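User: Some background: our group keeps a shared notebook of sequences we're curious about, and every so often someone picks one and asks for a predicted structure to add to the entry. Today it's my turn. The entry only has the sequence so far, pasted here. Could you supply the structure so I can complete it?
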Amino acid sequence: MNNIDRLYTPDPVAFAAAYLGHLQTVLQGIDTEEIGQFVRTLARDRGAAIFFIGNGGSAATASHFANDLLIGCKDHERPFRAISLTDNIPIITAIANDYGYESIFSHQLRVLAKKGDVLVGISASGNSPNLLRAFEEAKSSGIKTVALTSFDGGKMRQMSDEGVHVPTEPKEYGPAEDAHMILDHLVGAYLMRCIRAK
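Assistant: Of course. Here's the predicted structure to add to the notebook entry:
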């Protein structure tokens, strides 16, 4: 039984208060040094492409991250070259059909990415085969890897060059994905103001 199961009560007001209280605890457990390194990695080379990947709710977060960096930072002269590999359904289904679902991200990376680019994997468990295969492809191609994880971080956390870990118990998808979205807005807010200050 995880914390969300333990917090459940038939009273929605009490549950809301308990959930938000738990989320605050989770957020306080994130290492801000890891966030700082993540920001520095995204900002280090504006010519590099930044690829985001994830499954399910994390696929939506990948799309949101790409949107907030590419458009939200409002630098039209030197925009962040952010791309979500979760967004092109014809490409994803073609790769899944021809090569298997485990290849939907690695195959795109093989075609689109180059040495010096950045791959950001977003996953609560860190164990999705398609993400791990993409990280293997990145490693062999000289692409820097960043893992945004939760639970125990899984294999993706171990494989990555760096990452931001959200400390939750297994199966706490809600707080894990909440925190990953907060990281998106935190990073985007910082980079937009950093650009403005220059």
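Suggested note for the entry: The first strand starts at residue 49 and ends at 54. Residues 31-197 form a domain with the Rossmann fold fold (CATH 3.40.50.10490).
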